[in-house]
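Q: what sequence does this backbone want?
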């Protein structure tokens, strides 16, 4: 055999081996050897994500309800999760679950000591990755205030104050929510007060608040690769903790829905993956991404 034939055969063997190795890696990934990059590929990468948490209403009290025309318009133009569930009762543990993948031992709505936990959470992960984060809290007395409550403001709905690895200054008043949406952090939470979130006031009141305060952002998000997520902390204790969760924006396929069962940990996992984060907080590490609703 000539020297050139040996070289050709050797090259062919190496090429075949490389192809086989690549195939094996692909099969391994598909069978559960999921890398962070692969996990994140299941969801879009919006420029801005705004999450709003409303209060104490079941799926059937909002989705399809005449008192919530704006939320239902977001559902029609975006996506709804028809089997979305909270973790527990009452409110406060659910907020910690959504934010950190764990209730952090919180079992009630009592006022906790600020910064009691150093556990990994959505904000600490975002900050560690060099990405931007903030919360916007309606009727918070002042930026970074850790007061338990005053008037219609309640800290029990703001889990970020429970973590020593989240600067209190990142908790802003809702009046600081920017009018130029391009200046929003890459990820932010909005917490309405006890009336605006439907806790003390009607579904209609909360729905109108969403339209008046965040409707312009939602419209902007539709053409600026951004996302609005509206979910609830818990149901009315009468519906198995099935809650409304609606997603809207350019990355969402209009008029889509998913009947897959999701919970707060799955939503947390999805939020982490929209940010390209390489770690996951608490139970989000074993949770699943929300799929089947994204625009191609």
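A:
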């Amino acid at each position: 055999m000539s020297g050139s034939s040996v070289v050709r055969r050797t090259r062919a063997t190496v090429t075949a081996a490389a192809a086989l190795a690549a195939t094996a890696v692909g099969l391994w990934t598909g069978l559960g050897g999921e890398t962070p990059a692969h996990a994140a590929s299941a969801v879009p990468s919006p420029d801005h994500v705004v999450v709003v948490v409303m209060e104490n209403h079941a799926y059937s009290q909002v989705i399809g309800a005449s008192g919530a025309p704006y939320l239902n318009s977001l559902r029609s133009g975006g996506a709804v999760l028809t089997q979305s569930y909270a973790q527990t009762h009452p409110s406060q543990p659910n907020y910690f679950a959504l934010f950190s993948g764990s209730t952090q031992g919180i079992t009630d709505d009592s006022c906790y000591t600020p910064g009691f936990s150093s556990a990994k959470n959505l904000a600490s992960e975002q900050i560690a990755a060099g990405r931007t984060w903030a919360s916007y809290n309606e009727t918070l007395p002042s930026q970074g205030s850790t007061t338990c409550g005053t008037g219609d403001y309640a800290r029990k709905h703001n889990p970020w104050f429970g973590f020593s690895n989240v600067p209190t200054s990142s908790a802003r008043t809702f009046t600081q929510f920017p009018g130029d949406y391009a200046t929003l952090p890459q990820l932010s939470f909005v917490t309405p007060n006890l009336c605006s979130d439907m806790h003390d006031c009607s579904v209609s009141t909360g729905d109108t608040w969403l339209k008046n305060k965040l409707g312009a952002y939602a419209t902007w998000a539709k053409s600026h690769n951004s996302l609005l997520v509206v979910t609830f902390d818990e149901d009315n204790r009468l519906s198995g903790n099935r809650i409304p969760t609606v997603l809207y924006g350019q990355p969402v396929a209009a008029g889509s829905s998913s009947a897959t069962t999701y919970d707060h940990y799955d939503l947390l996992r999805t939020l982490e993956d929209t940010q390209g984060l390489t770690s996951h907080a608490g139970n989000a590490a074993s949770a699943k991404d929300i799929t089947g609703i994204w625009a191609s």
